[in-house]
Write a sequence for this structure.
């Protein structure tokens, strides 16, 4: 569709890696790349403090700093990196690059986690929706114009309302009705799971899907199920956050894109943004204004996820945007 | 100090009023003003929905709108206004203006609350501080350059650290030590109360004052005690909000200026703002960045309060900024 | 389509008015409304300073304030208001309301300009496009979900590329080819004019239309032709503003929604917003990020225009948002 | 003053480097550091496209992408990096580190420019001011609380107004009167130059200094003279930008921190930010609101400069913030 990415000759092999921090990791990785003449076109690094580092940071309170942190052998931080190598400067295929890099990664210890993917290989997304179509419509438009680095393989709705909008974009829509009684929703979720997994997607996007995923599905799609919540989390968890925001009288409303975990609206945050409101804005106005933030925050978070820019570190994310 | 306001010939008589809503209030007020040829240079109006209006708004959920609201006689909303009248166009003194207006206000019912103040009469503020000086330093600078529509009458600290900074600006500093045991802090609070009340201030500003006011003081200073909290409330109530924000992994940090009430960090919000952070920012960075938001949010909220722009409506504020 | 507005029982008669400023105008208008028991649900007022007021403001420079302004008889400012009256509280039809109000307006002098429109009467918009579809797609989605207070009557393109996207939303697309030689484009513009005028639209939206309108068309559509320019005007007028922004090394990019006038990209600004970029963002990234601002800024400006919230005052706008 | 930085044990040796881009540079630098066991606590990289890369980017216009870029031997991009090495992990002194690194840098070609500085060595700033004190007051407060990584060595004013504020902070103030006739200001600038150079500062800050530096001084202080301009450049170059902004009717006002060059307000931009205004804000309001942006933008840009985070690339900056 869009040839924008390809015209930039920017097919890349993208390495993402996390491991216990120690000197020499960057040198190890970049020397490996330099040996075959690879050109690094984008590089991000982050050293996350270990427990005592965090504790030390915590002592720098507004009531004054505390004692300096002690660095003991057990106080290990964590190292994260993302490297994008120009594919045309790599003299072998991705599979061989992976094989060769495995040797380098082994030196960083058994806890090391890494991935190497080809930016030229299009990624797949499946969307879950209910009745609210603004995020769906926005993502369909981005996919059509090549702004989203993925194809939308299918849209699954627990209401049939958005079938028309989906199919007008040439995308398959599956209607999976959900029973009123939450206790009886198991089979519906099972059907959703099968439909989703049939596409082996890189991202399962809850684009204003108004059903809470059961814990098993959260675990099954861990690290690839992405939700857009219409509040600035952790404020206003759960249902009707704009009503909660109105009642509390906040002066900014927000939206949060996060990974789905079993604890409701508590997964690692990928992206957030806010919009100013005032006393004259009622809930209706907030819903309208909020849509503009939800669209952009979800699209941004999803793109970062698809491009391998998001690494999870406990309850936090590292985003090499 | 600064003659900026006066050069604009903008001495104003400022009316603020809240009453049960019904047709004709604006006409009543503005006709009264027009009769003596008064020139309204700034006018703000707000009709807050009554209970059933709010409920109706609540039905416009993201799952679809509900039934239209019923308008019964008991479903009364509330009306708020702020009118700034050019003083030079008023042919009598403020006291007489008040007397005359009392007759108009009486028609709007016994629940009506209103005030008329003279913008040419400088307002008085007293500041409470602890060790953190950034908000204090900022307000002292604004007062000195005429940016703050008030004189800072005194600064009271539960630590002596900020005495020098205060006195360098020619402002009196009172050090009131607080005992470690919260149960024994009563006399200290009593002393603070006397010092504050001695100035009969229009605003009591908790400029990063790290003591929780007892309920009696909250009630005593209701509507004029203003706090700056270093989080985007209602997230991260209480102590060390930047640490809470770091642990939760939010992508924006914020600050909130609000009226002090007996429930901690839960008073009506006057102003809020946020600043973007990322994974590389530790608590120390957040403290530094947060200071820039705290300063501006407090200064803005305080100015609006002093200029009679903030009206309280339950747990929410109407701000005619 | 969307019943969101109607469910709020908010059919309104909306008055917008501009006239030479003098005491008593608000009283005159609101007394007229109060007489028949009309309920004002939204009210905005603005007194724009006259020439000497502006000059006085100009003297308040950062090098210190100048002399106070003199108020002479010839120094007339301008008064603007927008009043939204709940239609259900008006005991007669719009036509009669207009007739009755004409008498009130006459008292404000011959220069007075005013309009009264019925918010329940859907407005009509026609869109002009080229190849870039993101603004078109966004507006089609808003119209479909009832977020845009208008129907999109037709889309006209000087390229055929966006016909499919338009027609998928059930909207008529007209392809009007433009000759390469600017000197020969007269007949094409004439055809566009006829197509547009056939719908008698309230708004003619240049949704990334890459042709400069001839001066006659600007005059013909004055006050209803709205453009979205992909820079923070007045920076980067004309072609390829993101390239200009990249070359200049700015740290924020922006978008501007403005009325079209004969002077290129110099018409009264309705709305603007910006987005942060950094050194790592190339023109391609700026184009992508810019689309998110363009969409929102255009949608916001267009909605305000359609709801009668924008009044033009010389080269500036008054926006009762 | 503030012990906040030191408590974090974060004395660092900071390397900044720019050179023609080619594979292997990162590996060369990080291998050098790894050899002696150095711990990199912060790393930033940027590959700026060469001329044909820029041209290719330029072809990705909104009218559609152009042909792919050709990579010829002469099309060299530029590589920038900033590495912060934990000083306690470096087994020799800064001087020796410099000597050793010189050998590494030599391999990157004769155009390579690099610096290595010790974050533990406090930097020196000299401030130039006129009558407007808000930026001065803000920087004095930051310096006093340890927020600014520099000592303010002296303040020089072409008006005596700010002497009191400066001296209250224990900083030396020099009053250098400037003649009315611009042609006769040479000796005054000469005196300023001598006063400034006597402190051998890392930064010469024009904190709302209302005199245009002569070209020789711009050249003499190239890369260390920093100005805060009260507009969102390149809009509103020169005098009275808020008046220009008011006349143009923009909806956001801004401030720009940039390096001073001989062309007025056209030097490389370090940082910018904006604030929303509306039709009700006159020039006086814009001046007030603008001060809040100016303070923060200048403080942020100055800190980045002092910490070696800003590298200049032609008319643009690379900021490793």
């Amino acid at each position: 569709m869009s040839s924008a990415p390809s015209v930039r000759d920017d097919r890349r092999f993208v390495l993402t890696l996390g491991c216990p921090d120690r000197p020499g990791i960057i040198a190890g990785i970049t020397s490996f790349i330099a040996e075959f003449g690879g050109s690094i076109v984008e590089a991000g690094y982050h050293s996350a403090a270990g427990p005592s580092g965090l504790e030390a940071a915590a002592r720098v309170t507004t009531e004054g700093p505390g004692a300096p942190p002690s660095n003991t052998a057990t106080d290990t931080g964590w190292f994260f990196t993302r490297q994008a190598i120009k594919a045309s400067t790599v003299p072998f295929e991705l599979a061989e690059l992976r094989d060769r890099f495995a040797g380098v990664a082994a030196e960083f210890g058994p806890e090391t986690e890494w991935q190497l993917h080809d930016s030229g290989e299009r990624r797949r997304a499946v969307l879950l929706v209910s009745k609210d179509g603004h995020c769906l419509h926005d993502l369909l438009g981005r996919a059509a114009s090549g702004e989203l680095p993925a194809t939308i393989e299918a849209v699954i709705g627990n209401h049939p309302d958005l079938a028309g909008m989906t199919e007008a974009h040439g995308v398959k829509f599956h209607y999976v009705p959900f029973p009123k009684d939450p206790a009886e929703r198991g089979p519906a979720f099972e059907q959703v799971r099968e439909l989703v997994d049939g596409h082996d997607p890189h991202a399962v996007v809850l684009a204003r899907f108004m059903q809470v995923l059961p814990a098993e599905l959260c675990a099954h799609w861990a690290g690839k199920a992405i939700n857009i919540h219409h509040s600035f989390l952790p404020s206003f968890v759960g249902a009707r956050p704009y009503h909660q925001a109105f009642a509390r009288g906040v002066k900014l409303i927000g939206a949060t894109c996060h990974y789905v975990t079993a604890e409701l609206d508590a997964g690692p945050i990928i992206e957030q943004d806010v919009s100013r409101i005032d006393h004259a804005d009622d809930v209706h106005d907030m819903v309208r204004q909020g849509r503009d933030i939800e669209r952009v925050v979800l699209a941004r978070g999803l793109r970062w996820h698809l491009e391998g820019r998001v690494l999870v570190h406990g309850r936090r994310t590292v985003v090499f945007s």
Remarks:
- Residues 229 and 256 of chain D are 5 Å apart (CA to CA).
